Every structure is written in structure tokens, then in C-alpha cells.
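During the reporting period the student researcher (J.K.) took over the structure-prediction task from the postdoctoral fellow and processed the backlog of single-chain submissions. One of the processed entries is reproduced below for the supervisory committee.
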Amino acid sequence: MLYLKEANWEDREEEFTFLTQMPQDENGSINPCFGMTQGEFFTQGLPQMIDNAKGIGLPEGYVPATTYFLWENDKIVGKFNLRHRLSEALRNGGGHIGYSIQKDCRGRGLATEGLRMVLEKARDIVPEEEIYLHAQLQNLASLRVMEKNGAYIHHQDDTGYYTRIKK
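J.K. obtained the following C-alpha cells:
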């Protein structure tokens, strides 16, 4: 069974394990917890994720963002970040949602289903009329995930595809 859970204290051990297995930067998905010790994750990484969802302590130009972990039964298989609104940088870059699926779990439709579930939440949170997403040019699998969830290519440049999904 697949389900989403917000970053939380109850699942901190599993969240830490998942994030320490993810690369620092893969296909534009940055892992801010890369290289953290468990102690650093518990005192800095996780509290920051929880505060970000509430808009607490955000640096200038940042917007609130909720981190959701995609669980398959009792294992985390993916991470989705839902930015609550767009800044200019997000409007012209990463958009509302960024995601990553654990490497050994790819190719099973988990990203498609996880994005579908996050889009349900986004429709209630995001004030814009469309949900903005971005896929790097070489990441055609991510583009297909977006298209399966109703995205159309708004435009592309030399870095990637900028897609939109109507709310």
C-alpha cells in the first residue's frame, strides 16, 4: 500500500535512513541532508523540514514547503517537496513540486502515483491556477511522470522542460 506522510518526529529513524541513501544532487533534486550525521539530522535537518512547512525561519526569498515521504507499506521509497506558492525563482525554475524516488524502486510507477497524491494536496494549498513543475532535459522519465498526471509542456530551454498542470 502506498501513502504519503509529512516529515515528522515519529518516523525520524526511517526518514534519516532514506535521506542518507539519496545522492546530494541527482537530476536537479538537491538533498540538503546529504552527509548529515544522525545527530545533525535530528537537531537541524528534520526540525528545519518541519519548520519550513509552517513558514518558520525561512531565508529571504524562500516560500513555505512541506516535505512528504512516500511510503510503500513500512518502507520509505520516495520524497516529494510541495512549495506552497511561487517566488520568482520558482516560477522560472523548479516550480511547486520536486521529487525523488529511491533508485532501486524506480520503474514501478511509484513517482506517478506519488505525484498524483501530492497534486491532490497541492490543489488545496497552491494559490496559482496551475501547478508548475520542471524536468531536466535528460530526465525523460520524470517528464513522462508529469505528463501521466496531466501536465503539458509550457516551454523548454537548454536546461529542461517546464510543465504545468491545471488545478
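The committee noted the following: The first strand starts at residue 2 and ends at 6.
J.K. will present the remaining backlog at the next meeting.
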